[in-house]
Amino acid sequence: MSIIRREIPMNSIQLKGAVPISDGYRFVVWAPHADKVYVVGTFNDWHKTRHLMHRESNGCWTLDIANAAPGDEYRYRIIRNNNEYLKIDPYARRVTHSAGNAIIRKPQRKIELKTFDMPKINELIIYELHIGTFAKDSEKTGPGTLAEAAARLPYLRDLGVNAIEIMPLAEFAGGYSWGYNPSHIFAVESDYGAPKAFEAFVEKAHKLGLAVILDVVYNHFGPDDLDLWQFDGWSENGKGGIYFYNDARSETPWGDTRPDYGRKEVRDYIRDNAVMWFKDYNIDGLRWDMTAFIRNVYGQNNDPDNDLPDGWSLMQWINSDIKRMKSNAILVAEDLQDNPYLTESADENGAGFDTQWGASFVHAVRAALIEPDDAARNMETVKNAILHTYNSNAFNRVIYTESHDEVANGKARVPEEVSPGSADSLIAKKKSALGAVMVFSVPGIPMLFQGQEFLEDRWFDDQYPLDWSKKERFAGIHQLYKDLIALRLNRSGFTKGLAGQNVQIMHLNQTENIIAWHRWESG
Question: Which of 69, 245, 271, 339 is the most exposed place for a label (fewest CB within 10 A)?
C-alpha cells in the first residue's frame, strides 16, 4: 500500500463552517435573510453580542475569531425581524448530539490518502451492515460503535467479501436509528464515535482488503432535530426555508423536507458533503438512498410533469466530480424503478452511477423462494430476473435477497418468511441456501445483509444486535457462504465465468420448478 499526494480542487467550493486560519478560526455561514448573525460559544462564554459576523454580498456571513480552538462548542445566533434563532452550523464536522452544539474539529493534516486497490466491479462482493447492531453485543446498553465494528472487520475478511456498505452514519436524532433521517450530514453520528473513529475504521478496512461504501441520504433531510429548517428565519407557505423547496416539491414520504436542488447554495452543500466523505475519510464509494425521489416528486418513471431536472443534474454533477477526484470510486443508486438511465454516463444523459440495486431481481426471487405452493411458482418470472440487465451490462445491477428494506417494516428474513416461527427448519434452510446460490451465480454484483450468512432470522431492528451464536450453530450455512464467495471470485481457478457478462437459460421446467443457466466470461 503506497502513499500518494492528491490535491482536491477547491476552486468551485467556498469553504463554510469553522475553517482553520493562521491565528484561530474563520466562521462562514449562509443566511441570506438574516438581519444580524453572531457566533456564540465556549470561547466567548456564550456571550450573545460579542462576536457579530460581517455580511457578504453572496448571502454569507463571516468572522475570524482568534481564540477559538479545537474542541470548543458553538452555535450561530441569527436575528431576523427581531426573532432569534440559535442554529448548529450546517457544515459542522462534529456535534455533541443531534440537538446539541457544533464542535470545532482539529485541523486535518495535508491530504495524503493511501491508495487502495479497489476490486474490479465484476468482482465486487458487498456486505451491507448497520454500525449500531453489527457491532453491538447482547449485554451492551446503547448502540454499537465504530471502534467495536472495526474489531469485527477480520471476520468479514475471512468470510471472503471485499466491500462493506455502511448504512448512513451522519448524525441523526437519538441514539438508535437506521440512519435515513439525517439531522447533520457533515457530522459522524456521535453515538457511534468521533470522526477519528471513522477514519480508523476505513484505514483498518483497507488494510484487510475491504472497500468502504457509505450510504448517503439526499432525497430528504431530517425531519427530526433539523436545524436547517427555516434556518435564517425565512420561509414561504409554512415550509422549510432556504435549504428546501417551499412549494409542493418539498413533500416526500419521509417528511416535508426535500432539499431545493435548484438553488446553488443547496447544490453546493450536498456536493461538498459527498466530496467530504472521500476527502476526509478516504472512502471508496457512495450508495445514494432512493434516487427516485431526487429525480421525481413522487419517485416515478415516465412522469414528466413531476420530474425534478435539477435533482437529475445534481446527481450528474456530483458523480462526475467524484470520478474526477477518485476514478475507481463505486457509485451506487437505490432507485428501485428499473430505470436504466441511472447507470448511463452523463454524456449519454444518464445520472452517472456505476450500478443500481436490482429491484426486478430481489422481488421476483424472494417471491419464488417464499411461495409455498409449487404449482403457483412462476418460473418465467425467475428466468426474467436472471436475464435482466441495465444497458446490456450485467454489473449495472446489485443483486440480493436480503437488505435492510427487505427484512423490516413487516417483512422478515428469507428463512422466517419461508417457515414462520421455524426459520431453522430444513425447508427454510434449503430455500435460503437456494437464494444464496442464485445471488452468487446470476449476473450482477452480489450483496449480503448482515447475519444472512449464518441464518439470522430476526427482522431488522436498530436496537437489537445480531445473534452471533448462530455462526457456530449453523456452521454449515456459514461455510456455504464462504464457499459460494470463493466460487464467485474464482479462487480455485475454474469458475471465472461467474464474473463474466454472459448467461443463457439452458433448461426451464415449469411443472417441476427447475431452471438451469450457463455462465461464461468469454469463449
Answer: 69
Confidence of residue 434 (pLDDT cuts 50, 70, 90): very high
The pairing of strands 60-65 and 24-30 is antiparallel
Q: What is the pLDDT of residues 69-113, one digit of tens each?
A: 999 999 999 999 999 999 999 999 999 999 999 999 987 655 455
Amino acid at residue number 202:
V
Distances (CA, A) of 146 to 99, 135, 142, 150, 174: 21, 8, 13, 6, 17
Which of 323, 341, 243, 324 has the alpha carbon at shortest distance from 286?
Answer: 323
Q: CATH for 17-103, among 2.30.40.10, 3.90.1590.10, 3.40.50.720, 2.60.40.10?
A: 2.60.40.10
> What is the residue extent of each domain of the chain?
17-103
HSE (CB half, 13 Å, CA atoms) of 29?
32
Distances (CA, A) of 487 to 160, 389, 484, 497: 10, 22, 5, 10
Whole-number average pLDDT of the chain: 94
Determine contact, residues 72/42, Cβ cutoff 8 Å: yes
Taking the C-alpha atoms of residue 88 and residue 100, their distance in angstroms, rounded to an integer, is: 8
Where do runs of H (alpha helix) occur along 123-252? Answer: 131-134, 146-151, 153-159, 195-207
Q: What is the DSSP letter of 189?
A: P
Q: What is the pLDDT of residues 256-295, one digit of tens each?
A: 999 999 999 999 999 999 999 999 999 999 999 999 999 9
Q: Compute the distance between CA of residue 372 and CA of residue 521 in angstroms, rounded to an integer.
A: 35
- Which residues 6+ apart lie within 8 Å of 344 measured at CB? 350, 351, 352, 391
**Residue indicated by cell numbers 457533515:** 186
Which candidate, 439, 427, 429, 412, places its Cα nearest to that of 374?
A: 427
Q: What is the pTM of this model?
A: 0.95
**What span, in angstroms and rounded, lies between the C-alpha atoms of 441 and 397?**
14
Q: Which residues contact 156 (CB under 8 A, 6 or more apart)?
A: 127, 164, 208, 210
CA nearest to 74, candidates 33, 65, 56: 65
* Secondary structure element (H or E) that encloses residue 87, with its range: strand 83-87
pLDDT of residue 140: 79
Long-range contacts of 507-513 (CB under 8 A, 24+ apart): 508/379, 508/380, 508/383, 509/379, 510/379, 510/380, 513/374, 513/377, 513/379
CA distances from 410 to 119, 239, 413, 460 (A): 35, 32, 10, 10
pLDDT tens-digit readout, 1-47: 222 222 333 334 458 999 999 999 999 999 999 999 999 999 999 99
- For the chain, give the percent of residues with pLDDT over 90: 92
Q: For 394-414, what is each residue's pLDDT tens digit?
A: 999 999 999 999 999 888 999
DSSP H or E run through 515: strand 514-520
Q: How far apart are CA 205 and CA 157, in angstroms?
A: 9
Nearest Cα residue to 122 out of 494, 393, 517: 393
